Amino acid sequence: MDKTNLYDIGYSDEYKEEARKYEENLCPGRVSAQHKKMYKVITEEGELHAEISGKLGFSAASLEDYPAVGDWVLLDRISDVNGNAIIRHILSRKNCFKRKAAGTGNELQIIAANIDTIFICMSLNNDYNLRRVERYLSIAWDSMALPVIILTKADLCTDLSEKLIELETVAMGIDVIVTSSINGDGYTDTQKFIKKRNTVAFIGSSGVGKSTLINKLIGEDILATKEIREDDGKGRHTTTHRQLIVLPEGGVVIDNPGMREIQIAASDLSMTFSDIEELEEQCHFDNCKHEAEPMCAVRDAITNGTLSIERLTNYKKLQREILFEERKKKMTSGQLEKLKMIDMMGSLGAYKQARKHNKKIKR
Question: Is the pTM for the entire model greater than 0.90?
Answer without folding.
Answer: no
